[in-house]
Amino acid sequence: MIILRSILFNTLFYANLILQMVLLSPYYFLASRKKAFAIPKNWARSNHWLMEKIVGTTFTVEGLENIPEGGYILAPKHQSLWDTYALLPWLDDPVYILKRELMWIPIFGWYVARQKMIPVDRGARGKVMVKVMERAKQEMAAGRQLIIYPEGTRRPAGAEPAYKYGIARIYRDLDVPVVPVAMHPGLFWPRRKFLRFPGHFKVKILPPIEAGLDPDLFYETLIERLEKVSDELLVETARDNPQVPLPPTAVKRLKELQAKKTS
Fold it and tell me: pLDDT confidence of 127, banded at 50, 70, 90?
């Protein structure tokens, strides 16, 4: 049953993406940029509905009161394709720094460009990165929310932390608060797999780390706060969803946490 539901969900997920991009293009490209953002947000909501009705996966978002006004950096854990779009309905005017190749995809790239996302050559250095930061500062000044995944790439639940120091440099240069987000969608939508598993999990938006800290102190604070809550959520999510097969990284981490508790 899980296989059939996964196939149906994946099919409808991509069909939903293509149909909305094509059918709603006239409004998207004629409306103001910010009003047009209602389409990606509604697309995210429709995906949540599909996942609940077809797969049986639900989630709750806690800590919305921690979201500050104006410009800030959102720093979520990154485990799945799910967390690349899932929080859009709760963000006012988000912006991503993304690899430039995505801008070349027909229609999708046009949608991305319409929202003034910031393309970057991942191998770029020097002047190119200076221009990227200049763009990021402009978007922050406009009150937008920059989404950055501190570990850079998707990591399985329970994996050892692998944070990139780049977020500390960006934090220093932009001089805005950083809002960490802990969650474990990868247990239900695993990376590089087509299976989707039913269950329930929490998304926790943590209090912002204020601007102006020393970059090294910020980096240590981010890791400490985010990993602490991630561990707590891992224990809770695994306990409340015994039907979900855990990846080896999660099994190992749960054993380590249990050993610490009993020592």
Answer: low
